[in-house]
Amino acid sequence: MASRAFTTALRTAAAATRTARPMMARPMVSALKQSTLKTAMPAMQYRGMKTLNFGGTEETVYERSDVPKEKLLETFKDDTIAVLGYGPQGRGQALNLRDNGVNVILGQREGKTYQQAIEEGWVPGKNLFPLLDAVERGTVVMNLLSDAYQKEIWPEMKPLLTPGKTLYFSHGFSIVYKDQTEIIPPKDIDVVLVAPKGSGFTVRRLFQEGRGINGSFAVYQDASGKAKERTIALGVGVGTGYLYETTFEKEVYSDLFGERGVLMGAIQGLFQAQYEVLRANGHSPSEAFNETVEEATQSLYPLIGERGMDWMYSNCSTTAQRGALDWWRPFHDASKPVFEQLYQSVRDGSETARSLDRNSQADYREKLEEELREIRESEIWRAGQTVRQLRPENAGKN
Ligand SMILES: NC(=O)c1ccc[n+]([C@@H]2O[C@H](COP(=O)([O-])OP(=O)(O)OC[C@H]3O[C@@H](n4cnc5c(N)ncnc54)[C@H](OP(=O)(O)O)[C@@H]3O)[C@@H](O)[C@H]2O)c1
């Protein structure tokens, strides 16, 4: 698609964004307002749980204002929340909880990450402990260790999960694939999940900006009878703005499927295939990259995120429209069998087996690095480095 085709679309979108600015602090409400909500909920309230119509299906959404600060503090007044792991999720969620004023401690092994935690205000012996110490002290144990290590530490952790405690995950992985992880929690504890829909860096950044990331939540085991209410409160405490109810199974299936599909694997495959065809037909690396990645990420995808693909189709040149209308089906038909194969591989546990096997090998970092280097050194992404340097905001930096 020629960039020219989108000049008008960009102008329209920029104008719309300017007028929509007051809504920007509530991106989801803003997005919803532009579509179904406008007619479906004329007197929409910004507080309280609500049932919304998602393209014809009613779903319940919980939001941050369901759990004001006082309620959050009251809910966990007798708890010690132990966050295990200071990776992207552990860090984002632990810092948000701490800023929200709840009693939170951190469990982290010594090393580089531990030092980072100290630099960020965690104090050894006060609110920073070795992993199993933190499990012992915590009444809510938030397992944000790597999925592979969750399996490894489980035999030592399990006896410390005494009756009445809550075990929390941000992924259904360890529980759903229990045949492989052997993580089977005691019956007398709550087992819950809050999965922010994005990286831990975004969890933290949106919280600091006074916004909140979308997240899903699920209750696997409700020994206390209060698991759902407490999970929603935890979700708000860790920095989500809106919470959608799911199950452990649905969360893990959709998450593994999505990241292997359109979020990462499929998109890399499509970028690479289109780039190769352009190069094989004599296009220069810069032209092939611009027409494959740069225009997509810098112009079209942000607009699709903001306003939808339907809007994009309606706001491009008629030439682009004709071609995109004719060609989406062949791409759909070619890729659907691959998506079906992928879903099956997620559901039957093959993806988990592979991930646990590969990521628990002693030399997994080196092997991974080799594969990542192959992508990093491929022509498309090397061409991309140069194209990015020429973006207006980077001009003159090198
Ligand atoms: N729903 C979502 O959107 C979402 C997004 C991302 C992650 N998650 C989930 O959140 C959880 C945490 O993910 P993450 O990406 O933040 O973390 P990660 O990078 O996978 O794991 C990081 C933590 O695990 C520790 N760890 C790893 N191997 C260890 C070992 N052998 N011994 C002791 N500690 C070890 C790390 O300590 P060191 O730093 O010392 O190695 C670090 O604290 C996972 O369950 C993941 O699937 C969910």
TrEMBL record:
UniProt binding sites for Mg(2+) 1: 255, 259
Enzyme Commission code: 1.1.1.86
One Pfam family recorded for the sequence: KARI_C
Listed InterPro entries: 6-PGluconate_DH-like_C_sf (IPR008927), 6PGD_dom2 (IPR013328), KARI (IPR013023), KARI_C (IPR000506), KARI_N (IPR013116), NAD(P)-bd_dom_sf (IPR036291)
Major location (coarse): mitochondrion
Enzyme class label: oxidoreductase
Gene Ontology terms for molecular function: ketol-acid reductoisomerase activity; metal ion binding
Record's GO cellular component terms: mitochondrial matrix
Name the UniProt record assigns to this protein: ketol-acid reductoisomerase (NADP(+))
Name of the gene this protein is made from: ABSGL_09609.1 scaffold 11483
